[in-house]
Amino acid sequence: LQLAETIASRYSLLPQVEAVAVAGSQTANTFDQQSNIDLYVYIQAAIPIDARAEIATTTSRREVNNQFWEPGDEWVDADTNIHIDVMFKKID
Question: What is the CATH number of domain 2-90?
Fold first, then answer.
């Protein structure tokens, strides 16, 4: 959960961000070595792509600005090999 908190704190420093929530098995204490980290970032305005890419810097691979389901970023943390899945939710 330390990695999730570190990433969430980096997003929380951005002026567009209202809140960050950690979800999934990491929060329910039912995770295993295959579990990912799900973060929901609630925003008032779009975060520039380059700012989002700066947060995903310690990666072995990444996909920034994925638009398949909703705006999001995904990467694998190079130090822990944990998959990070970030979804951005606009607050109206």
Answer: 3.30.460.10
> Buried b / exposed e across 3-25, counting CB within 10 Å, b at 16+?
ebeebbebbeebebbeebeeebe
**How many angstroms separate the CA atoms of 44 and 82, rounded?**
28
Does residue 84 contact residue 74 with C-beta atoms inside 8 Å? yes
Residue-wise pLDDT tens digits, 48-61 = 999 999 998 777 67
Quickly tell me which residue has 């939710």 as its tokens. 89
47, amino acid identity: I
pTM for this entry: 0.86
